[in-house]
Write a structure and sequence with these properties.
- The chain is of the alpha+beta class.
- The chain has eleven helices and 19 strands.
- It is about 35% helix and about 30% strand.
- Strands 1, 2, 8, 9, 10, 11, 17 and 18 form an eight-stranded mixed β-sheet that branches. Strands 6-5-13-14-15-12-16-19 form an eight-stranded mixed β-sheet, sandwiched between helices.
- A hairpin with a 6-residue loop joins strand 13 and strand 14.
- The longest helix is centred in the last third of the chain and has 25 residues.
Length: about 375
């Protein structure tokens, strides 16, 4: 059997893997992206896109079409017990994109897939699963199963595992992970936006005594609500549109219509980090390398920024035949991931249940932080301007 060849094989055709593929193709690298799903992505899932990611998207001409479909969030508003504690402006977080944007994940994926297809027609291989990796000094042989169920083999200069938190590539390399699972459960859902017109582009965070409610505007007059559900609750018992709408109404006063629900999901928060990011000519990015809490919306953006830093290193490696500088790359990207994870943990702690003086103390803290000039630093931190 003749073995096909490519410069880089990306395993995982989600938003991170497809973006890396498009970057490599634009750099003139021969690339294939194997994606086990054989269907077109659907569902809103992750929605937040931060300014550094938009800057990175410009390299594949994806920023403009994303912005054409997205909702621009220019400020965040903190509330508690029916009162506004303060506001956070994103106007100073970026010279190019002074805002955070929201867009359904499947719509972002579609745009990135179009950019990959434009730069490298046929590079995305849906319905293709990797089953083995054979590493050599100057290449990697990947074995898999194609969409027709037949065995396939590909020889690549480099392989990238962009295949998520349950990464097959990571497992094939025998790389362990460290981390923990948090006891709290969250429920999120998308509904018709009940907020007044003046607040339709605001991100809202209510930190009342019963636990946090986060609310993010979405395109087409929708809003994503995320609520703290409790500890140890079975997921199927908590995912209910009527219950979520009632929770939001009780904690915030927003009149959410449960009949308008278009997405509903429960999730538990985990923090995981691969003990190694690269082995020889195989490297991990995104959730395969570091999984953090979705509270704060930084996980998918971390993956995109991994891809943006890794792409030129891979292109140089393919061009010169050299191996990748994984230790330096890994140290930088894992340090960024740890900072984002700590920030997400602080957000979770701030949004937990509280009673008595703790409620007042939390409100005073937020009023103070949002009223000081340092609020601009908080906005930059949330928008990942440190990444």
């Amino acid at each position: 059997m003749t073995v096909a060849r490519t410069g880089v094989l990306v395993v995982g055709g989600g938003p991170v893997g497809v973006f890396l593929g498009a970057l490599l193709a634009r750099a003139g690298v021969d690339v294939q992206v194997w994606e086990r799903r054989d269907t077109v992505p659907s569902g809103s899932r992750a929605i937040g896109i931060h300014p550094p990611s938009l800057d990175a998207f410009a390299a594949v001409d994806a920023a403009v079409p994303v912005l054409a479909e997205a909702t621009l969030v220019r400020r965040g508003v903190a509330r508690s017990r029916g009162r506004t504690l303060g506001t956070l402006s994103f106007g100073g977080v970026s010279d190019t994109h002074p805002y955070v944007v929201t867009l359904d994940q499947h719509r972002t994926e579609r745009i990135l897939r179009e950019r990959l297809e434009s730069a490298a027609p046929g590079a995305l291989r849906p319905g293709t699963t990797v089953t083995a990796l054979r590493r050599h000094r100057d290449h990697v042989e990947a074995v898999g199963i194609g969409p027709d169920g037949g065995a396939i083999e590909l020889r690549a200069s480099f392989v990238v595992g962009a295949d998520g938190a349950r990464s097959t590539v990571r497992d094939l390399l025998g790389i362990a992970t460290t981390g923990r699972e948090y006891p709290d459960r969250y429920v999120m859902g998308d509904f018709a936006d009940p907020e007044p017109l003046a607040a339709r582009s605001d991100a809202l965070v209510d930190v009342g005594p019963d636990g946090v409610v986060e609310a993010f505007p979405l395109p087409d007059g929708r809003r994503r609500y995320v609520t703290l559900a409790g500890r140890g609750a079975p997921e199927h018992d908590e995912v209910d549109a009527e219950r979520l709408a009632e929770t939001v109404r009780r904690r915030t006063g927003a009149a959410v219509d449960p009949a308008s629900n278009s997405m509903l999901s429960g999730f538990r928060v985990r923090r995981r980090e691969a003990v190694r990011v690269g082995v020889g000519r195989v490297v991990l990015i995104g959730d395969a390398a570091h999984e953090i809490s979705p509270i704060g919306g930084q996980g998918m953006n971390l993956g995109w920024l991994d891809a943006a830093e890794l792409a030129p290193l891979l292109a140089e490696g393919v061009r010169t035949g050299s191996a990748g500088p994984w230790p330096a790359y890994a140290a930088r990207r894992q340090a960024v991931a740890r900072r984002a994870a700590r920030q997400a943990e602080a957000n979770m702690a701030l949004g937990g249940r509280a009673v008595g003086p703790a409620v007042l103390g939390r409100e005073v803290l937020l009023r103070t932080l949002l009223g000081l000039p340092s609020a601009a630093l908080l906005a930059r931190t949330y928008a990942m301007r440190w990444s």
